[in-house]
Amino acid sequence: AEATLAGEFRIGMGFGRENNGGVRYELDRYFGAYLRGQFPARLPFRPYGLIGASRIETSQNGGGENYNDLSLGLGADYSINQDIFLSIEYLRAADRSEAEVSNFSLGIGARF
Known about the structure:
Elements lengths: L3 E15 L5 E15 L6 E16 L2 E17 L4 E12 L4 E11 L2
Antiparallel strand pairs: 1-2, 2-3, 3-4, 4-5, 5-6
C-alpha cells in the first residue's frame, strides 16, 4: 500500500454530563477540517496523523463558550478486507488554559 494524504471535514453533535458540583457541561456542536497523512504499510495495519482546525461550541448551566483551535491526532486503520476497515483514533480538538476538548474513538468504515 502507498502513503496517502487526504482532506477531511467532520461534524459532531453534542452530549452532556454533570460533575459532582452539579454543574452541567454540554458539547453542542463540533466542526473540524483536517489533513490526514497515512503512512505506508505492507500489513493490514496503517497508522496515520491528523492536523487541522476545530470549532467546539459548548454550554454550561445555560451559558456558553466557543473554542477555535489547532487540532492534532493520531490513529490507525486495520483492514478486514479490501473495502472494510476498523479504526482507532485520539484527537486533541482544543487545548486552551480554560478548556481542553479531546476525543477517543473506535469505528468501522468502508472504501468505495
